Amino acid sequence: MPDIIKVTNLVKRFNGFTAVDGISFSMPKGNFYGLLGPNGAGKTTTIRMLYGFSPPTEGELRIFGMDIATEWRKIKTKMGICHQENTLDPDLTVEQNLHIYAGYFAVPGKKARERTDELLAFFALDHRRHAKVRELSGGMARRLILARALINQPDLLILDEPTTGLDPQSRHQVWEKLEELKKTGLSVLITTHYMEEAERLCDRLVIIDHGRILVEGDPKTLKCEHAGDRIVEIVGPDPELRSFVSERRIENDDLGTRMLLYLRDGNEVEDTIRERFCMDRCVYRGSTLEDVFLRLTGRELRE
Ligand SMILES: Nc1ncnc2c1ncn2[C@@H]1O[C@H](COP(=O)(O)OP(=O)(O)O)[C@@H](O)[C@H]1O
Ligand SMILES: [Mg+2]
To answer: What is the mean pLDDT of the chain?
Structure first.
């Protein structure tokens, strides 16, 4: 079976500035595939090329086994997209937004009405069917954007930061809906800043920075490879701890006021650390994708 998306040596330059610098990845059918990276990493630029908004400077893009340079029309009928920004028409009602979109995909009237009803029920929007978009909360608008992207029953859904700016309740609700969609076998490419989101939803992911892929893999393997099995965070590390860590060559990040030790299974120094250095200033925890992300992309601010 061909990959749903296959990206080969993709490059995008804007007047000499390279936003996407030769990325390649493949997304299997039925996967939730994550594109993670700090602001300006090149995520949206990649998605715009995948959705045919912006032609690649170099490289090849295949979706459903077809080349988007030549078979764009066919591909587009089986694809849904949620842009990073809100692209709903504020003066139309919830229902009208869906009907108009169904029209773009030439979904016949009866089918469009059925599909609208299903999607409004699924995204808990049916009670706001006749409300204008401008009257919706941020969470509702986001759910409507998701519903709209599914109106043509796509095989591939592309989501550019689907939960950025939402409050925790709305974000969790979107995650639950995405998890339900995942069970139906839909393939989803998602960009996000929320590592918890990536950890929860993604089967595989890439972390990109400055237009290049830093790592590719499933969340569990990436955590294990780049941030150990367990982490000890020690507040106010003293010289004794620092010399212990360097003598034993324990993988660590020394942030000055805090030190993170990355421990692997079978590492016998753990007990010693606990006894000698962990009084009241020590946190033991599992490694997370956020640790991997920060270790690979650095801790300095991007904006
Ligand atoms: N149309 C454009 N013209 C010039 N530079 C652009 C354009 N679109 C994006 N960029 C630049 O490309 C880089 C990647 O942007 P983007 O793909 O939006 O990043 P991300 O979505 O990962 O935050 C940024 O430095 C951005 O300023
Ligand atoms: Mg973006």
So the answer is: 94
Split into its structural domains, the chain has a count of 1
CA distance linking residue 76 with residue 124, whole number of Å: 27
Distance 93 CA to ligand 2 centre (A): 27
Assess if residue 10 is contained within a domain.
no
At residue 1, the pLDDT reads 66
User: What's 248's domain CATH number?
Assistant: 3.30.70
Is residue 145, in this structure, part of any structural domain at all? no
Judging by beta carbons within 10 Å of its beta carbon (0-12, 13-18, 19+), is residue 186 exposed, middle or buried?
buried
pLDDT band with cut points at 50, 70 and 90 for residue 12: very high
Q: What is the mean pLDDT of residues 161-168?
A: 93
> Does any domain span residue 54?
no
* Å from CA of 19 to ligand 1 middle: 6
Nearest protein CA to atom 9 of ligand 1, as residue: 45
Give the Cα separation of 146 and 177 in Å (integer). Answer: 10
Q: Is 44 in the pocket of ligand 1 (CB under 6 A)?
A: yes
Helix (H) or strand (E) run with residue 165 in it: none
Distance 44 CA to ligand 2 centre (A): 4
Domain range spanning residue 274?
229-286
Q: Is the CB of 297 under 6 A from ligand 1?
A: no
Residue 265 included in any domain: yes
